[in-house]
Design goal:
mainly beta; 8-stranded parallel β-sheet; 488 residues; disordered N terminus; 5% helix
Length: 488
Amino acid sequence: MCLDVTHTDVIVAGAAGIQFQNPNDFEVQVGPTTPVEGLPLTLPANSSLVYFPTESFCYITVCPTVSPVDSVVINCPTAVLTDCDLLVDLTHNNPTSITVDYDILINGAAVSGASFSAPTTSNTIDICTALGITSGSGTADVSIRYFYDGDTTQVFQSENTCTVQYDIPLNKQAELAANPNRCGFGENAAGGTNLVEVSTPAEFFAAIQVDDNHVCLTEAMAGLNIPINSPISNFADRITIDGSRAPGVNFDGSGLANNQWIFRFFGDDIVLHNFSGNGSGSNNGSNISFINLYGKRVWVDKITATAFNDDFINILLDADEITVSRVKATNTSKSVFVFNPSFPSTRVTVHSSELAAISRNPYLSAGQLHSFNNWIHNNSDSGTRAGRTAVQSGLGGFTHTGTAEIISQENVFNNIQFQALVTTTDNAAAGGNEGFIESINDNLNGEPVSGNVTFVSAPSLFTPPDCDFIKPNSEVIAYVQANAGADQ
């Protein structure tokens, strides 16, 4: 931007020369083509007067230099950035009457804009969004472009560029949201978005009762055994319980009475991730269950259950759109029981899990269930409960609406005492319903499982939602051993 001599708010022409009222680093050019000897001149910052021949007044043009003294400077952070919030401090020595409009640039791309007139200002920007990352390490260049008092004809760059070093650990909330194991019928389970970090059982029990909470158990709860002496019923919607930062946290149900449970969820959009629970075994009450689900759109992932003398997971009544993944059931009576006499459209996915319960690995009374990449083994017992089956479709003795259809795909069965897959045909006297199983590449003790099935339906019972990482059964045991169950 060049200022003509007639701009008297900046300069005044006098008999002896031009006096600058607002001193800055300016260049003075005299003459249309050939400057007077000794010109152009640069006005020092502490001077306000430059002399030159007065006969050249008609050719005077005054131009500010490219880097004015009052330029904006970034105060570069020196510490390694360990979260996504980058604080950008700016300084300039402009008079307070002058407004600086500016953009913050990350690696040359603008990520935010603002203005200020005070000598300093600060901005917090989300560097993760700017870089398109959720975690990782590296460097990023931070710079500023700016102009004065709304004059966009001359835009300046900051005199310095900051190179910011970042080392951002994996964001557990973002990781969970992007986890591919949520696939299947429960893939749309939203969970909570309001992150609440809890460090005590009391904080935990309060937080899970509030809609839309993503309840993160912190490191302070790692290895904690939490006694559950009365069952917990939860009616909130959009709840996440995430124990990934608290390895070894366990909910102890050994003090529960007969026919009680640890958790019962009535809400929709529930995500349960990475924690353990134990029942009473034979110490106190019978029929103790871990997790009872009544809502829609639920994802249960990386949960370990031991010593329950009833079901690890009950999917009941009108529950629907459920995915159970990477869970581990040991020394437990039953794994996953879907019991819905009057709601035949329940849809469930069970995958990548170690199911070593006596029975119900899983058991579907009505609806549709896709079971794949599970390791189902050692489900024998002594006494009157000996001879239970591994996977069962259909249920006798109860009046049900509709049929039960299971697609069993690329599962591995070891040491099954009775049968790997079994169906119940319609029995009017018992009030039961008809069950169907389609077995696709299942394996029993190294052999195809088809010869061990009571009834296998015609192919293509239903089309399950796509899970594009289904593994061949030869890889199942190693994968499940490495991934199923809560972190310890």
